[in-house]
Amino acid sequence: MLKLNDVNITFNKGTVNERKALCEMNLHINKGDFVTVIGSNGAGKSTLMNAVCGSYEVDSGHILLAGKDVTRLREHQRAKYIGRLFQDPLKGTAPNMTIEENLGLAYGRGKKRTLAFGISKRDINVFREKLASLGLGLEDRMKTPVGLLSGGQRQALTLMMATIVTPSLLLLDEHTAALDPKTAGKVLEITNRIVKENNITTLMITHNIQNALEYGNRTLVLSQGKLLMDIEGERRENMTTEDLMKLYADSTDDVMSDKMILKS
After folding, report:
1. Is residue 115 pLDDT above 50, yes or no?
2. Tens of pLDDT along 161-208?
3. Is the dihedral of CA 108, 113, 117, 119 positive or negative?
4. HEC states along 158-209?
5. What value does the mean pLDDT take over residues 104-123?
6. Which end of the chain is more exposed for a tag (fewer CB within 10 A), N or C?
7. CB 63, CB 7: distance < 8 Å
């Protein structure tokens, strides 16, 4: 589904501040994999996602998505294959448009665009059913401007928008980091359910080691732009947060932030 072959990205190339952001990154993610990604600040987590979605150009190497080489495709050309959520709940939605209108725009992703923008009764019924599944009561607020929603409601809506047309790949860039623990837990539960029900290939960056092991079927550990560990199967199932913290400490000089050590 997703392959990175010897991908390299350098920041500030040719200057005194030159830094390898990704170094010979090789990664193969199968269809339906739910992969969590952890690492310290500057490890290359967000750079990896930005490379995959086309926000950053690679210096060398190749990125393949669903068998297609997308390395030189621009970000907007890849957008029809990729759904993405950011840490900031304000990103990914149009605040002055209603819930219904935002979903209408998302529902048209990948379709031929026309000058007319309309939402049919059938579309509305689909939106209502999808929103009801979130358990947040948003199905009764479809005419509400998105800017009036709470951070958790907005992030749940953004998740729905990113997956209402099932993407080939879903990228979650610390999408619960700005939420309080209770709301973050709710959004993660919704995320897990949507990903499983639709068998969506997913990459999720998290600062929480417990969440990294609790969700998905693989955990990647990045350090200084390199893939340090790829943990899956029985080894991952039997691994505790303490095990992963020790393994991380023994494998790199990077310092774990307090956020990474969070267990709940």
Report:
1. no
2. 999 999 999 999 999 999 999 999 999 999 999 999 999 999 999 999
3. negative
4. HHHHHHCCCCCEEEEECCCCCCCHHHHHHHHHHHHHHHHHHCCCEEEECCCH
5. 74
6. C
7. yes
Whole-model pTM: value is 0.91
Percent of the chain as helix, strand, coil, to the nearest 5: 35, 25, 40
CATH for 1-81+168-178+201-264 is 3.40.50.300
What is the phi/psi pair of residue 72, to 5°? -100, 5
Longest dimension (CA), the chain: 59
Which has more confidence, 115 or 25? 25
Return the domain boundaries, the chain. 1-81+168-178+201-264
Q: What number of CA atoms fall less than 13 Å from residue 185's CA on the CB side?
A: 5
Dihedral sign for Cα 219, 193, 92, 175, please.
negative
Cα gap 188→199, rounded to integer Å: 16
pLDDT digits (tens, 9 = 90+) for 95-110: 999 999 999 999 887 5
DSSP letter, residue 224: T
**Residue 184: is it exposed, middle or buried by C-beta count within 10 angstroms (0-12/13-18/19+)?**
buried
